[in-house]
Design goal:
The chain is mainly alpha-helical. It is 67% helix and 3% strand. Strands 1-2 form a two-stranded antiparallel sheet. The chain starts with a helix and ends in a 19-residue tail after the last helix.
């Protein structure tokens, strides 16, 4: 009986390794797929805000009465804000990773954030009332260049820290190599030495720098700006808890969005 069981155990071992290898490859493909969805969503977001090369934009979308447009548009942005913030909180992550494997937690967050933005693109109601329009061509070009600099700043800021970790690729790559991912300490790098949130500053510039501002675009910019200013102190609290005294000192010394602003003691540092 013992000899007859030996072939079973030996044949099971390769199968077990094969399953593990298949799972690792599946996780890698899932992470890559989520990243590609993010890239497509980011590119579409640029087109959505600027109105360039997309079928629906913040200014050209579903037509509806103004009251309905305001309610629907704000609701869409609130859904995105709640998903984006709630899923990023440590308490949610501790609960979430009881059901979602840790290596794909970030990729899943990225995928769902992309889905929330895609919902905005799909269901956005345009409000075409003109708020401002920059007249001369050189001025319009200058504003467009400023907007482009905002998008580039936001993208570059992700590479200043760890772009591939931020969007989940590092996590799935470590699983594929069967290597544990080490904890990363706090570092001040590049633009993060001047402000704490260059990525968010880039988005703010991109959202507001437009040659033609419609009421729908203004609603989008105002709501997203409000979300950013609400999210900054919440994120700072989590980072202080996670990184401790080094980040606390960094937060006290470096302004949130605008370089060179004097720092003040107290809880309103985040408005810098």
């Amino acid at each position: 009986m013992s000899n007859s069981q030996c072939p079973v155990r030996h044949s099971a071992m390769p199968a077990q390794h094969q399953v593990t290898g298949v799972r690792r490859i599946a996780v890698l493909l899932y992470g890559l797929g989520s990243y590609l969805v993010f890239l497509a969503t980011f590119v579409y977001l640029v087109g959505f805000v600027t109105g360039i090369a997309v079928p629906r934009s913040v200014d050209r979308a579903v037509e509806a009465p103004m009251a309905q447009s305001i309610i629907v548009d704000v609701a869409l942005l609130v859904v995105f804000a709640l998903q984006h913030s709630v899923m990023a909180r440590p308490a949610f992550k501790r609960w979430w990773t009881r059901y979602v494997p840790v290596p794909i937690e970030r990729s899943t967050y990225v995928l769902l954030s992309s889905a929330a933005l895609a919902l905005v693109f799909w269901q956005w109601r345009s409000i075409e009332i003109s708020v401002w329009s920059v007249g001369p061509t050189p001025a319009r070009l200058a504003v467009s260049v400023l907007a482009a600099s905002g998008w580039l700043t936001a993208l570059a800021a992700t590479f200043m820290i760890d772009h591939f970790d931020l969007f989940g690729l590092s996590q799935v790559a470590h699983l594929l190599r069967a290597k544990p991912q080490g904890e990363k300490g706090f570092r001040e790098v590049f633009a993060y030495r001047l402000i704490r949130h260059p990525l968010l500053l880039g988005f703010l510039i991109a959202f507001w720098a437009t040659p033609t501002m419609t009421a729908g675009h203004l609603l989008f910019a105002v709501t997203m700006t409000a979300y950013i200013f609400v999210a900054i102190p919440i994120e700072a609290h989590d980072l202080v808890d996670a990184l401790g005294e080094p980040y606390r000192r960094y937060r006290e010394r470096v302004p949130a969005l605008l370089p060179g602003l004097p720092r003040r003691n107290g809880r309103f540092h985040e408005k810098g």
